[in-house]
Amino acid sequence: MNLRIRDELQLKRYRKLSPAKKRVVDEILGRHLKACKREKVEPEVEATFREAIDIALAGSWEPDKPIEVEGPRWQYDVYVSPSKEAA
Questions:
Q1: pLDDT digits (tens, 9 = 90+) for 43-85
Q2: If both were cysteines, with which of 10, 21, 25, 59 could 17 make a disulfide (CB 3.0 to 4.6 Å apart)?
Q3: Max Cα-Cα span within the chain
Q4: Both ends of the chain: CA-CA distance in Å?
């Protein structure tokens, strides 16, 4: 990881993680940075780093899965007013 993290406490927490949990943190940070670059916003690296460590420790992170159904996910019925429906 080549980011400039200044929070020494979080760096110590990161160094104590297993290699598998470090990969989770790295992937979360990578996805965050990629999304920020795509949206042209400044990334919040320190907060994301802390939260990524918490997620890795909790074991509640799951990688993205491919979309099962292509195309629109929702389809809404077109509203027809009762006066037009009766006509």
A1: 889 999 999 999 999 988 777 777 676 767 777 788 888 877 7
A2: 21
A3: 72
A4: 67
Task: Tell me the HSE value of 55 on the side-chain side, using a 13 A CA sphere.
Answer: 18
Separation CA 57–CA 54 (nearest Å): 5
DSSP 3-state assignment of 33? helix
Cα 56 to Cα 23: distance, rounded to the nearest angstrom: 9
In sequence order, what are the residues at sequence separation of 6 or more whose Cβ sits closer than 8 angstroms to the Cβ of residue 5? Answer: 11, 14, 45, 46, 49
Give the sign of the dihedral formed by CA 72, CA 74, CA 75, CA 81.
Answer: negative
Contact 58, 21 (CB under 8 A): no
**CA dist 21 to 16, 18, 41, Å?**
10, 5, 27
